[in-house]
Write a structure and sequence with these properties.
The chain is about 90% helix and about 0% strand. With about 40 residues, the protein is an all-alpha fold. It is built from 1 helix and no strands.
Length: about 40
């Protein structure tokens, strides 16, 4: 059971990093779309 804790913690950190990366790309895409629509 003690061996699972570091593995689970690493997996959770990896999932969080992937989630934040995807969220960052979504926000960036949204902002670029807003700026491009404002230029018209």
């Amino acid at each position: 059971m003690a061996q699972d804790d570091p593995l689970a913690r690493r997996q959770r950190a990896k999932n969080l990093a992937v989630g934040l990366t995807v969220a960052g790309f979504c926000v960036m895409f949204f902002l670029i779309t807003i700026v491009r629509m404002g230029m018209r």
